[in-house]
Amino acid sequence: MTHTLISFLGKARKDEGGQYRTATYDFNGEKKTKQFFGLGLLEVIQPQQLIILGTSGSMWDVFYEAFADSEQQEAHWIALSDSAEADQVTQQQLDACSIDLSEKLGLKCLLKLIPYGVNEQEQSTILKIMAADIAYQDQVSLDLTHGLRHLPMLGLLSAMYLQTAKQVHIEGIYYGALELTENQITPVMKLDGLLKIADWISALHGFDKTGDIAPFSDLLKQEGMDAETANLLKIAAFHESTLSITNARGPLKAFSKKTSGELPGIASLFTDSLNERISWKNQSSIYLRQREKSIFYLQQGDYVRAAALGYEAVITQYLKKNNPSADVENYEVRDEVRKTIETQLSKSELVDYKLLRNIRNSLAHANRPNKEEIQTILSDESLLQKKLTELFSQLLPEK
Length: 399
Known about the structure:
The protein has helices at about 35-45, 60-65, 70-85, 90-105, 120-130, 150-165, 190-210, 215-220, 225-240, 245-260, 270-275, 285-300, 305-320, 330-340, 345-365, 370-380, 380-395; strands at about 5-10, 25, 30-35, 50-55, 110-115, 140-145, 170-175, 185-190. It has about 400 residues and is α/β, with parallel strands linked by helices. The chain folds into three domains: about 5-190, SSO1389-like (Rossmann fold, 3-Layer(aba) Sandwich), CATH 3.40.50.10640; about 200-280; about 285-395, Four Helix Bundle (Hemerythrin (Met), subunit A) (Up-down Bundle). InterPro entries: CRISPR-assoc_prot_DxTHG_CS, CRISPR-assoc_prot_TM1812. This is CRISPR-associated protein.
């Protein structure tokens, strides 16, 4: 597993004295005086590989100058200087310098030419170039200090991309805040929190698509929540996946009680969003909980769970109507309702009930329905969505 530092290189900017500005960066008490932040970070975190990304007009010559101490390297530097001035640095030039830098720095060093990122195609190209030399499950640190003003944003997106595409572990995202220099000391910021926020946004998006609340558990542990409390969400997610809504409700109520509705650290930004998504636990009856979740699954396009839970909600409704004191989760009791419910339904309700049951059976058993009407409904998503919506409206009244 290789630890790689990825750093950006920007265009040259000279101060009034004609020299490129040097800063003393404070790495949590360890100070490094450098022209280029990435070289100081390199000494602190000691990765096995350094990748520097820059455009055809980046300050490659200025960066390389400090390492050019032979005639051949001097020739490389002169060529780089002319090319950088003309915004015409080539990958071939950078490859030659990469060999020199690898020897000087004592680690594998890659200099990579990237486009300016002025459009979507160029932006995706930057991400591909960045990921090309990163292996599956590698470790990566990102330096967002230098480079064009929009490249740090791409850097953050690249971290998200690497996490997803190659399951890379992001060790840190660093920024040397030159504009905050005080008493000749430049603070170093770790921007990992931005990535955590992105993880929460991704988890919320995933929940809205699938209804899976389990990913929030690990995110909450990262923010310091004790494992016992955070794991309640995983327990609830398991029971929801088996359509045991009552068993899912208990862990969610316990979670809310233990957290008092407030979440720690970065998670506090998403307290209201998470509470809203588990608010169904407050429904007063199992029927209403089943109803709400079946409608949720339908909205998310999870038709198997929507039809199955919607059908069970119908059974629960008629069971409570005829025998309020009965154990609504007892299989024998529910099975008896299934045998007698058809005698209690109106003609129109009976048609809807049988249709929902047949849709549920076809989806649950993954077989080809023998009724032409069911075949038609299941042949088109819009038809299935519309029909289940109509059936729920007729069979699952809000009480």
